[in-house]
Amino acid sequence: MPKISNLFFKTAVLFLIVGIGMGLQMSISENHNVIGAHAHVNLLGWVSSAIFGVYYALNPAKAERRLALVHYAVYTTGVVFMSMALYLLLQGNTAVTPVVAVSSLIVVAGVLIFAWTVFAPENLALRRSARAV
After folding, report:
1. Tens-place pLDDT, residues 87-107
2. Which residues contact 111 (CB under 8 A, 6 or more apart)?
3. 131 within some domain
């Protein structure tokens, strides 16, 4: 399995553990005010990261590109900061609103990098070489 797939899978499992912990905390306390953060951790963290891992496992040529690691770093950083800031915001700390906004844009950048990866040709270098000949 490509290293980037392994990274995404391991990170997805960590997000799953955090999401389950948040769900347990809400259930035990009977206070569901952070359900939005819980949903973001589970969907953007656990589910999306696992899907990215599967994609790269099925597309090993694209997994070996440096852009895959950039995708991982940008997307994961955005989700981590957005999730933490959103959790605090939903607890009533409005000072973190700018962090939620900026980290959300970082997540979007990560998604756009993934979109580029999906729609880019399998081997851009070979295509460029073929055009030069």
Report:
1. 999 999 999 999 999 999 999
2. 75
3. no
> What are the pLDDT digits (tens) for 29-55?
999 999 999 999 999 999 999 999 999
Angstrom distance (rounded) from CA 91 to CA 127? 52
Q: Which two tokens stand for residue 43?
A: 């969907």
- Terminal C-alpha separation, the chain: 34
Classify each residue of 93-107 as buried b or exposed e, where b means 16 or more C-beta atoms within 10 Å of its C-beta: eeebeebbeebbebb
DSSP state, 120? S
The encoded tokens of residue 130 equal 């073929």
d(CA 9, CA 13): 6
Count of domains forming the chain: 1
Q: What's the predicted TM-score (pTM) here?
A: 0.90
Structural domain of 41:
3-125
